[in-house]
Write a structure and sequence with these properties.
This protein is α/β, with parallel strands linked by helices. Bound molecules: zinc ion. The site of zinc ion has 7 residues, from α4 and α6. It comes from Salinibacter ruber (strain DSM 13855 / M31).
Amino acid sequence: MVTAPSPWRRRDARTRAVSSAWSPNVRTREHPGRSARRRDRALARSKGPPNLAAFSFAPLHCYMPDSVDALDHERFVRAAIDEAGSAQDAGNPPFGAVLVGPGGTVLDRAGNTEGRTGDCTGHAETNLVRAASQEYDPERLAKATLYASTEPCAMCAGAIFWARIGRVVFGLRAERLYDMKGDAGRQLALSCEDVLARGNHEVEVVGPVLEDEAAAVFDIS
Ligand SMILES: [Zn+2]
């Protein structure tokens, strides 16, 4: 019997940063991308000086993970698992997230709120990003680490990217959670690492950390 290849890309190390290999269509200084080339041609045809401010990008070096300090990952993954437990006690799916600044300052924390609100976007990480991006400036978020009890889904990884958070550390791999659930529930088999690898600024991804402990909040583990 031929087994279909897994849609998940296996990590060959427990901890690694997202690849810095850029897609040809991702905009960087070296590879401006198709839309930038169209823009340059349009500017060349136009009369008068170009309004370059309208096309400026934030300096890429502002958001590199080098600016993120070393933290005690197990301590803060455990805090995210505690948030997951609190979310479950309040009638929501057991997912939690904690945002930590350099030096270990807890900036914010959130749990999943889908069960109580009926809002399908109420994932712990998205709830956390929504609040934190209104409270903290991008430079502060670039030096912060988001700890998640379970690997962020594609929606939450996108929110983390747009918030310019510098690093993600997660407990349970989404792939393992899907294996635990079997056919029950929806599955979006796209890893956090793969989503963030498509961005034009780097977000470090670390995990799994304390995976068995993170899995234990699910009754199906
Ligand atoms: Zn999510």
